[in-house]
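Researcher: Good morning. I'm working through a list of sequences from a screen, and I'd like to move beyond sequence-only analysis. For each chain I'm collecting a predicted structure so we can compare shapes side by side. This is the next one on the list. No need for commentary yet; just the structure.
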Amino acid sequence: MLAIIIPFYKLTFFEATLQSLACQTNKRFKVYVGDDASPVDCISLLSKFDGQFDFAYHRFEKNLGGISLTKQWERCIVLSEDEEWLMI
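Model: Good morning. Structure tokens for this chain:
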């Protein structure tokens, strides 16, 4: 199975990304959204896609991407479970 990791901070392209995931015919993936203490609420947008594909949301209390994008990506990767493949 595939883990799709989305380090979230801005809404730009986020809805289009979620819509693309919802349109996939092969749903053997799980999406992990790691919110980097964004000032923007993405939960209401995520709720529109509830039941269309498997996802997990986690909000980090401290913004790390402003200091180190790779460290933000790394902590988002840790959210994944036992998937064989990862995509960021």
